[in-house]
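Something for you to look into today, if you have time. I want to see for myself how the chain folds. Leave the record below and I will have a look.
***
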Amino acid sequence: MSHTEITRMKPSPVPLATLIGRELRNEKVEKPFVKYGQAALAKKGEDYFLIKLDCQRIPGNPSTSFSVFAQIFDGHNGISAAIFAKENLLDNVLSAIPQGISREEWLQALPRALVAGFVKTDIEFQQKGETSGTTVTFVVIDGWTVTVASVGDSRCILDTQGGVVSLLTVDHRLEENAEERERVTASGGEVGRLNVFGGNEVGPLRCWPGGLCLSRSIGDTDVGEFIVPIPHVKQVKLSNAGGRLIIASDGIWDALSSDMAAKSCRGLPSELAAKLVVKEALRSRGLKDDTTCLVVDIIPSDLPVLPPTPRKRQNVLASLLFGKKSQNSVNKAKLSAVGAVEELFEEGSAMLDERYLNHLDFQSLIPRPSH
């Protein structure tokens, strides 16, 4: 429903007790507005966006709408994997969700459908016989619930009204991620730097064969079975104060920390905020890579813009709720008192089990070819 339609309708009186009861049960009378801005500077021309504001859980029913924002597709070794994922990933995710279920069931099914969609997209791309690869950061916003699935080193952060910046993704870079290094070596892969003439080692840690510095991606069929397309998935529910997502490629995160990116654009509308984050990254590091940024504001429907975050520094203990967790599934809900973000689901394992396979249209997973 558009803003104009909402303002034209005269709401019928609601008893105070009912309103209080709704708030206590954390029900939201109105869906939030979603506003976004994007900015990009190309060095190699291998970054791609996907933005869809008009998706519907039930086709033809606008009240079941949700939005998809993906700063995906930071391609490498060519652009074909990035373009293929942009064109096919959303359909593969949605086709893995059962039809005719309630919104709550749909949201519960979404994390596993995202895993299935990533794997199916990777399998289909392998069948094309091309060797490029891509990172993916894929964000689904339905009401106040945000679900993020990611492979690679693009990143999505959440900045809430309490001033707490939460990381909703995990970087799958072998240089920084010890758990991924252990997974690759335990599976028989080799992790090391590039050897140059004279035996000197240079550059970031890479997986051999292939020499990719990421441990997860879509595509990269020439780098062996250790690079997997299974995303880290996290689902959170915002309070009705709303929040801001910053989704960006490594061109941003190589230059700025999550806190720096969030602070650089607080209080500004999303369109200007995205440009400012890119500008800040360039000021810090220069244009050394494709530098792309999406800023998405989830705004209460009675506010024109996201209110500025209070300057007073909040209790740092709140950020510990979003600290490093084990790779096991976390299904119990947690609540951050500052910023009121409820964590609904997190799964970071690189292993597939029968729950995910049931979503796929394939009898079995096709292994990546190893060379």
User: Anything to note?
Assistant: The radius of gyration is 21 Å.
